[in-house]
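User: Hey, quick favor. My workstation is busy. Could you predict this chain's structure for me?
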Amino acid sequence: MDEFVDKALLTQIDRIAASSGKSRQEIVDFIIRAWLKSRDGQDTMAIVQGLEEVAAGNVHDMDDVIAELEAIVRGDDDG
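Assistant: No problem, here it is.
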């Protein structure tokens, strides 16, 4: 982890770990889990999920969506 994390940040993580009696990994896991629960983390995961849906082909043609919306606005009855 040392080569991927800013030295000052790693020092802070190590200080927190030492004062709490937890390992560096436990602190990092906690921080990541807290971030994932935060608004930023949730927004990021929603974007990731959307990109995965697009990559899997789970999309709708925009022309079809617009045509359906126009039909709703006109009051067309599909069924």
